[in-house]
Amino acid sequence: MIIAIASGKGGTGKTTIATNLALVAPASQYLDCDVEEPNGHLFLKPKISEKRDVTMPIPKIDEELCTYCGQCAAACEFNALAVIGEKVMVFSELCHGCGACTFICPEEAISETTKSIGCLEIGMANAVEGAELFFAHGISNIGNPLSPPIIKKVKKLVNNDCFAILDAPPGTSCPMVQTLMGCDYCLFVTEPTPFGLNDLELAVGVARQLGIPCGILINRSDSGDNQVQEYCQRERIPILMEIPFDRDLAFAYSKGEAAVIKSQSLREGFLKLHHKIVAEVEK
Amino acid sequence: MKIAISVTTAGAGAKLEMRFGRCPYFAVYDNVTKEYEWFENSGIKAASGAGTGASQALLDRGVEVVISGQFGPKASQVLGAAKVKMLLGSPELPIAEVIAKWQADELKEYTIQKF
């Protein structure tokens, strides 16, 4: 079972929810897909046992064979190639690795080489009551504009027999879509404010387009207004949990501690959330 | 010689457009025939690489001088490699005045910046 924890708006508490849920849910995996700024490790403190480089293909021009016909540059959807007289310029930071140039070259002068765009770190973390938790995250290289290929690699580590939790990047663009694709369920973490609602509606639109059932968790539920509740009622989206503002929770967060470690009531709350998600998926 | 100018619109009312890669149109002026060719910049819709795409389109038309308000890092690399002269004009200047300034040699040359 694969669950994405997403939000639309940033800073609503995705990682707080994802890490605490991962710690209490039985047989769970935690996979941080927010590869531009992964931070789940700060709370789970995993022992990393393996590091893998993530690469993508980029074109390499054999100037001996090239006739400078310009078909590669014309075929490139991303303008990553320019043919100037007897010179081919490759802008690897614009390349999406689609391979169109290699395919179209009539002289077979283009081969593919690889470029490092980030890495994966894999390990185990301690969960509650002596259990262990599979941990993985992707890290995009600074300046790398393409995170979806790294997210794809993180998702390859999903074990379908586990309760796999994907900590999604904020927003509704390609990295978020890449994370949600193929999930059994999406839990949206939102805050009950006009900003939270605006971005939630956009995110729910993405989940619906992808055909992924979703539920809502309202964080800091005693702030803001009732618009999120009204929206959920109108759109028939279940609210699976509400967490009021809690100073102890905020304090634990500031220390890089998962709140469920110390709080019995939160542990029970997150266990209940786990049961509700499973019930929703099996519905 | 062909001179390309990034412009706001096609035709008589055209003014110099500040952006090179994402300008709506290019005017290509031929100083021998004294005629203009206008074409839409496909770069305005490009998700990425607008500057490289626009540069390639101008090179394919045999342009030797480009006048714009500003050049991006990738566009200036491509144009620089092709030895195309990059000149800076004031945004919103009517195209006839841009050409007059070019003829009078009053336009500043763009120097490639290191990023």
Task: Describe the fold and architecture.
The complex is a heterodimer of chains A (283) and B (115). Helices cover 33% and strands 29% of the residues of chain A. Chain A is of the alpha/beta class. Chain A folds into 2 domains: 2-54 and 117-282, P-loop containing nucleotide triphosphate hydrolases (Rossmann fold, 3-Layer(aba) Sandwich), CATH 3.40.50.300; 63-108, Alpha-Beta Plaits. In chain A, helix 8 (227-235) links the parallel strand 10 (214-219) and strand 11 (239-243). The two termini of chain A are 13 Å apart. Chain B is built from 3 helices and 6 strands. Chain B has a 6-stranded mixed sheet with strand order 3-2-1-4-5-6, with helices on both faces. In chain B, helix 2 (73-81) links the parallel strand 4 and strand 5. In chain B, helix 1 (50-60) runs parallel beside helix 2 (73-81). The termini of chain B are far apart. In chain B, 39% of the residues are buried. At the A-B interface, strand 4 of A face helix 1 and helix 2 of B.
Sum this structure up briefly.
Helices cover 33% and strands 29% of the residues of chain A.
How would you write the strand order of the largest sheet of chain A? 3-6-7-2-8-1-9-10-11
What does the largest sheet of chain B look like?
A: 6 strands, mixed
Distance between the terminal alpha carbons of chain B, to the nearest Å? 31 Å
Q: Figure out the total of helices of chain A.
A: 10
Could you give the order of the helices and strands of chain B?
EEEHEHEHE
Unreliable parts of chain A = none
Percent strand of chain A:
25-35%
* E-strand count of chain B: 6
Query: The CATH topology of chain B, please?
Result: Nucleotidyltransferase, domain 5
